[in-house]
Amino acid sequence: MNRWLLALAFALWGPWAQAHKPSDSYLALRPDGSLVSGQWDIALRDLDFAIGLDADDNGEITWGELRSRHDAVAAYALTRLKLRAAGQDCPLRATGHLVDSHSDGSYAVLRFTADCGTAFSDLEVTYRLLFDVDPQHKGLLRLDLPGSTVTAIFSPDKATQRFGIAGHSRMQQFVDYLVEGVGHIWIGIDHILFLLSLLLPAVVIYRQRQWQAVERFGSAFWDVFRIVTSFTVAHSITLSLAALGVVELPSRFVESAIAASVLLAAINNVYPVVLRSRWIVAFLFGLIHGFGFASVLADLGLPRDALVLALVGFNVGVEIGQLAIVSAFLPLAYFLRATTFYRRAVLTAGSLVIALIAAVWFAERAFDFKLLPF
To answer: Rounded to whole angstroms, what are the CA distances from 21 to 142, 297, 366?
Structure first.
């Protein structure tokens, strides 16, 4: 049974699951009169996949290998970015190349300018980097305007957006990051598996060395409520601290700790140690998960006023995504709670599958190698 469940899990999750940190690039634009100056940070791993940077195929991209491909990087990127103003295109020209580090690795930094020919009041941006090979890729924009900063997120269904140079609706920025928060929890399979590992025992109770069905829905509901609330409060705390730059932790440590939290929560369902205080476990490990949630916002480098708005919208989106998961899980789990199928196949065997996946994740993240396709 366990082998079949493992195969099923790989088949279902493989096509859409990503490593915890999704593919993003960071685009900064600064309009000034008829000109726009820009900086574009693109992950080396993404560029290597798209155009090939690792010339000797040794798994490491050196500065020499990147420098030899500067023209190819500029050509690839700038043909996938289009700026229009005052009814005409603004030709793009590369002006420099650097390398920078983000929380998830090294990035090529492409600096460029665009000449729109005349002063303008609106700027139309079309972003199509990597959408043809990775539909989950996002472009995170920071538009620096006099006295304010506008943020936006580009995705395949929002590849073209228009911005008023005088300003941009803060409500629209809030909604953009709210949607990004919902999407982030749905592709953050490690967060989902951690939450599910804590929720699976909510509809049963451990008595006489075995799981038995709870008698009332209210018992399961309040157990789920305590767990989800604790997880939400905890990751909201560290998401805020990390995104605002108050606390910083190494990315490898955070990702490894998240994998370990999934592993321990799943094993606890098979060999119960923590039973009535799972909400405490949710809170303690939720503090670590918050640092994972913060990686996108922290890397964007937003000014404090724009970061707070993005932070609130992103966090609300994460909570909406979580509530959707809980709303789908709890009624079905309660309906199946008294069946052998739920206790053995879903709770026990399912937890073993989750534990196995989490153990591989931990090894991959702690020792920096890749085994699973997600």
So the answer is: 19, 12, 15
Could you read off the pLDDT of 135-175 as tens digits, one per residue?
889 899 999 887 677 888 898 999 999 998 865 567 777 88
β-pair type (210-213, 148-154): unpaired
The pLDDT tens digits of the residues spanning 184-200 come to 787 778 889 999 999 99
- Give residue 237's identity as a one-letter amino acid code: I
* CA nearest neighbour of 155 among 130, 174, 172: 130
Q: How far apart are CA 163 and CA 150, in angstroms?
A: 9
Point out which residues pair with 110 in neighbouring strands: 40, 97
**CB–CB of 227/278 below 8 Å?**
yes
Q: Which residues pair with 114 in a beta bridge?
A: 36, 92
Tokens at 117, concatenated? 């020919």
User: pLDDT-derived band of residue 89, with 50, 70 and 90 as boundaries?
Assistant: very high
Quote the CA–CA distance of 151 and 53 in Å, as a whole number: 30
User: What whole-number distance in Å separates Cα of residue 24 and Cα of residue 309?
Assistant: 20
Interatomic CA distance for residues 235 and 307, integer angstroms: 17
β partners of residue 39: 28, 111
- Are the beta carbons of 47 and 76 closer than 8 angstroms? yes
Strand blocks (E) in 116-156: 122-127, 138-145, 148-154
Contact assessment for residue 73 and residue 111, using Cβ atoms and an 8 Å cutoff: no
Other C-beta atoms closer than 10 Å to the C-beta of 274 total 14
* Cβ atoms < 10 Å from Cβ of 172: 14
Q: Give the pairing of strands 24-32 and 138-145.
A: parallel
For the chain, domain boundaries: 2-16+188-367, 24-169
* pTM attached to this predicted model: 0.70
The 3-state DSSP class for residue 242 equals helix
- Pairing status of strand 35-43 against strand 81-85: unpaired
Characterize the bridge pairing of strands 24-32 and 35-43. Answer: antiparallel
Query: In this structure, what token pair is assigned to residue 190?
Result: 């490690």
- Give residue 269's identity as a one-letter amino acid code: N
Q: Are strands 122-127 and 160-164 parallel, antiparallel or unpaired?
A: antiparallel
Determine the residue type at 197: S
Instruction: Give the containing element (helix H, strand E) for 11.
Output: helix 2-13
